[in-house]
Specification:
Layout (H helix, E strand, L loop, with lengths): L1 E11 L4 E12 L4 E5 L6 H8 L7 E6 L2 E2 L5 H11 E5 L10 H11 L4 H14 L15 H13 L5 E5 L7 H14 L4 E5 L11 E6 L2 E2 L2
Parallel strand pairs: 3-8, 3-9, 6-7, 7-8
Antiparallel strand pairs: 1-2, 1-4, 4-5, 9-10
Length: about 220
């Protein structure tokens, strides 16, 4: 579960203090697919950075699965992020010299997962996104949709409780978008997913739709 209580985020410039988030409060149950919409500058990226433990709020309370994130030290937040949060980006962020298999396997090595166990986990992840036959292909040899599915599989092998997807279908055509949304919807049965999108059509997949306007939730 995610709970935010009166979250505010401000940035100081040379001439003023810019308030980006203006008292965000919300509760999201486990295993929900949340769509986050809003115009550029509405605070979507800032909110995702806070949820993903990449940044901290100026004030307010953030609870991730009961853990009071707002009370944690920087080192504690980093540890929690590595254990519970994964990210998927619009531009895939795959390593071009590595195969699909190796890209998915990489974060498991950082956790010192045994080689035999890594092989089984990656094979299962590839199967879950329908890419078992493309395991040995590098990103340049894959379509955009296939690259995004590799990126999703890489995020999911970490078994996060929270997956943040920033415009994951932004570069994809309608047919491929449906494939990616099917993958994310299935993943959402076991994870909480926050997905940023500009595509109103995709809200039909969501359990919860949140619209931001000038740093506030639009009612």
């Amino acid at each position: 579960m995610i709970e935010l209580k009166n979250i505010r985020k401000s940035y100081k410039t040379r001439h003023e203090t810019l308030e980006v988030l203006k008292g965000i409060s919300l509760t999201v149950p486990e295993h929900s697919l949340v769509m986050l919409l809003g115009e550029s500058g509405s605070g979507k990226s800032t909110l995702c950075n806070l949820l993903g433990l990449l940044d901290t709020a100026t004030s307010g309370e953030y609870y991730l699965n009961g853990i009071p994130v707002h009370t944690l030290s920087s080192a504690e937040r980093t540890k929690l992020r590595r254990e519970q949060v994964s990210f998927v980006f619009q531009n895939y962020n795959l390593i071009p010299t590595m195969t699909a298999f190796e890209n998915i396997e990489l974060p498991l090595g950082y956790r010192n997962v045994a080689k035999k166990e890594r092989l089984a986990i990656v094979e299962n992840a590839l199967h879950s996104v329908g890419l078992s036959e493309r395991a040995g292909h590098r990103p340049a040899e894959l379509s955009g949709g296939e690259q995004q599915r590799v990126a999703i599989a890489r995020a999911l092998v970490m078994n996060p409780s929270l997956l943040i997807a920033d415009e994951p279908t932004g570069n994809l055509d309608r047919t491929t978008t449906k494939e990616i949304m099917k993958t994310l919807t299935e993943a959402g049965r076991k994870k909480t997913i926050f997905m940023v999108t500009h595509n109103e059509e995709l809200t039909s997949y969501a359990d919860i739709v949140i619209r931001l306007k000038r740093g506030e939730i639009e009612l």
